Amino acid sequence: MVGRFASWAYLGIALLFIFLPVLVLIQFSFQGGMAPVPPFDGPSLRWWAKVMANRKITDGLWNSLLVGLGSAFMATVLGFLAAYAMARKRRRLSGLYQFLLMAPITVSYLIIGMGLQIFFNHLGIGKSLWVIGIGHVVINLPLTFAILYSQLGEHQANIERAAYDLGASDARVVLEITVPMLWPSLLAAFFIAATLSWDEFVIAFLLSRFDVTLPVVIWSMLRSGLSPELNAAGTLVFGISILAVALVELLLWRARRNRA
Amino acid sequence: MKTLSLKSWGHLPALAWTAAFFVLPLIAMLLMSLSERIEGRITLTWTFANYQAFLTKAEGTFVGALINSVEVTLLTTVLSVLVAYPLAYILAYRIPRQWQRLVLVLTVLPFWTSYVIRSYSWLLVLSENGIINQSLLELGLLSEPVGMGNSRFATVLGFVHFFAMLLTLTIYANLVQIKESYRKAAADLGANSLQTFWHVTLPLSLPGVAVGAFLTFVLAIGDYITPQILGGSKELLLPQAVMLQLGRQADFPLASALSMVLMLVVTAAFLLSARHLKMGRV
Amino acid sequence: MTDRVEFRSVTKEYDGNVVVAPLDLSIAAGEFVVLLGPSGSGKTTLLNMIGGFASPSSGRVLIDGQDFTDLPPARRPTATVFQDYALFPHMSLAANVAFGLRMQGMAKPARLAKAEAMLELVGLKGFGKRGVHQLSGGQRQRVALARAMAVEPKVLLLDEPLGALDLALRRQMQEELVRLQKRSGATFVHVTHDQEEAMSIADRIVVVNKGRIEDMGPPDRVYLKPATLFAATFMGESNVLAGRVAAVSSGEIQVETPLGALVVPGSALLASDVHLVLRPEQLQLTPPANGFALGQARVEELSFQGTHCRCHCHMSGQDLVLRAPVSAGLKTGATVTLHAARDDVVVLKA
């Protein structure tokens, strides 16, 4: 439908649009002066040095990783258990259960965060990384559930049946057949949940007090005034994300290569 | 022995989690929206005062915020689809199959960067010394730099940047599932490439568009970061109004009422598009 | 001697739909039985009831005289070869084949040796270390077979295992299945909708339709003397003449058909409706011994089939299909006289 030249031209313009802010950000993380905006008077590493020495940022990074990995693990486990039970056994209330499990995807993070804030406040439970993690499991559970549920079709059921037929117990089928068979999808679900959690702002903002995650740290830096340090911090986060994406793509690529 | 099988209980932990940390908090928020502050203490009085306040208080600022939110979100959704669809199409059908995954990952790489940073970095681009102003000045399209931040334009731009990537992913996932034989059959039956696209590819790709557009709508209408950073406080969107009540005033009942209104809008959008949504496909 | 597999008044209903009507069936040890029927006939449900993947709504399923009705697949002396092969995608071929032995607790060296022997048996010697993704459809089929046979089941269940293979490969695998069955001495129960496949491999064919057994017996018997009209039309092609019994004498009946009155061997009630069935190759152009003439027919359509000509004829408002020798040199529009041997005619109650 689209001519060859038009295709490449569109791809080029779209990539420019998508990468423009990121490239500008990276460039101005090497800014020399105090202004975070053009004109560029670098390159210099002074703002990188400042970021690396900023305890708030390194603490936030660590907290974000902790919450991201922890909540993603929880969401993947809960999502897998639910997807398995829902895909392998029909129930009278299956429709209702599925609706409930998917429902959080239709509600804004802001509302989920506020609801949890009111709820935990009422129960007398204070704000903490734990509470943020709980919220992130809520928003990621529909995603992990949907991803894994879609991978538990009739063909996979037959593979499990073959294992039962050859004498495997329920537990062995799940541990030795289903989980290894779904490994690439489990990995993908975990990764998506982890990246969404590690970067989530509003729930983390509403549910944190002393221990804050990286997006909240960056937000408070932003509020206290623009500086090239922000650019360096943003570039750092971008770099870590790229490393994570590359790592997971590599893992997924290897896992899929070994499949039919 | 059968009762212990994972098949029979596996869904229960997730359901319990959702009930405890999603349903109950929403109920708590609903009750909060029906409460009022009496002498600094929040008491459930089953009052609709907060909803009345939404309609009348501050000379209709809240209703205005709702209208702003819906306008910005709809504009964002439509523009994002228009930007993302050709991109997904080119990725799915113009890039050789063995390179597709790599190009896709590269194309949406900024999707994985910090959401806060991404919004902020547009400020750099849009600033008076920024690349856009400089380019327009050099081309002679502008005689003096224009401040493009702190505007609805900037908010929508920031949104479209993010959600076009999300939509590219969902539409691409849908497009690659459409069998090539359908397009071959259409061509074989005499359709030109435009007719094939219009009558075959486009209708079959609508589920991917619907899922992505719905996610865009939900995430954009509830987002606080992008309008706060790029739109500033010249015009208020509903999430900004909610955060304002939470932050400065700690008026939980009013903030809850505003949130319930926000949720109602999303529910309406969900019901309108529910027919086309098949989450499992993406 | 007890039967290897026995269905005793088994029924199956899904949401009020009867999938299997009350049904009895015995399968002897060492038999190669094919359940033949169209899709939705209930044949796969019967297979699943032996394997333990479906349980009957009522009735019992016995294996070697023991009641297995309520036992799960793992505790049955059966193994299934699935239609989509269901190979474990994350395991090597050797690990796939050895899986059942591992579940039985066999030590690693022993089970790997056995797996290698099984792979050799199905013609995949030295493939043990490969992954499932490296195999063609036919090779996957063989691995699925080796995996199921490795546990030495008393009954091997095959659910349309050759459906996804091309014709040449299917023929080859049919021969190999028969060879493997004779060698192992196991009982094979094979489900298919392909009547040619059924005839070429079965010791006994069970024709299933709408949850009932229409006919069962050795392939030649079922083909030449089908018990029901369904069996006659599903197992190969048949010419069916509807008629009414006009006269009955000892061992013979006279039937009024669209082609006139025909006297054929058989017995039926006077004035009852019957169907006379003749296979296309049983319609002849020259009078056979102890035959009769059916009358003159006009040749409507001819197609060359290599060994014979397939010929559509029209006679007194009745369409007939016959297989004429190529040497007969028939032409469209020609008129021929058709004959049949009396003993070839099958009389079925309408």
UniProtKB/TrEMBL annotation, chain A:
Q: Give the SUPFAM superfamilies listed for this entry.
A: MetI-like (SSF161098)
Give start and end of each ABC transmembrane type-1 domain. 61-249
A single GO CC term for this protein reads: plasma membrane
What is the recorded membrane topology of this protein?
A: Multi-pass membrane protein
Q: What family name appears in the similarity comment?
A: Belongs to the binding-protein-dependent transport system permease family. CysTW subfamily.
Which species does this protein come from?
A: Dongia mobilis
Gene Ontology terms: biological process? transmembrane transport
What protein name applies here? Answer: Spermidine/putrescine transport system permease protein
Keywords attached to this Swiss-Prot or TrEMBL record, sorted alphabetically, are: Cell membrane, Membrane, Transmembrane, Transmembrane helix, Transport
Q: Where in the cell is it found?
A: Cell membrane
UniProtKB/TrEMBL annotation, chain B:
What sequence ranges are listed for the domain ABC transmembrane type-1? Answer: 66-273
The record, for Gene3D superfamilies, names: MetI-like
In terms of PROSITE patterns, this protein maps to: ABC_TM1 (PS50928)
> What GO terms fall under cellular component here?
plasma membrane
Q: Which InterPro entries match?
A: MetI-like, MetI-like_sf
A Gene Ontology biological process term: transmembrane transport
Q: Which chain regions cross the lipid bilayer?
A: 12-34, 72-92, 99-117, 153-176, 197-221, 252-272
Instruction: Tell me how this protein sits in the membrane.
Output: Multi-pass membrane protein
* Sorted UniProt keywords: Cell membrane, Membrane, Transmembrane, Transmembrane helix, Transport
**Protein family per UniProt:** Belongs to the binding-protein-dependent transport system permease family. CysTW subfamily.
Pfam families assigned: BPD_transp_1 (PF00528)
Annotated signal sequence is: none
Compartments where found: Cell membrane
**Which branch of life, at top level?**
Bacteria
UniProt key word Secreted = no
Per its record, how is this protein called by name? Spermidine/putrescine transport system permease protein
TrEMBL record, chain C:
Q: Which GO terms describe its molecular function?
A: ATP binding; ATP hydrolysis activity; transmembrane transporter activity
Query: Keyword set for this entry?
Result: ATP-binding, Nucleotide-binding, Transport
Domain of life, source organism: Bacteria
Q: Which GO terms describe its biological process?
A: putrescine transport
Phosphoprotein is among the record's keywords = no
Q: Per the record's keyword annotation, is ATP-binding included, yes or no?
A: yes
Domain (ABC transporter) spans 5-235
What would be one Gene Ontology cellular-component term for the protein? Answer: ATP-binding cassette (ABC) transporter complex
Q: What is this protein called?
A: Spermidine/putrescine transport system ATP-binding protein
- Source species: Dongia mobilis
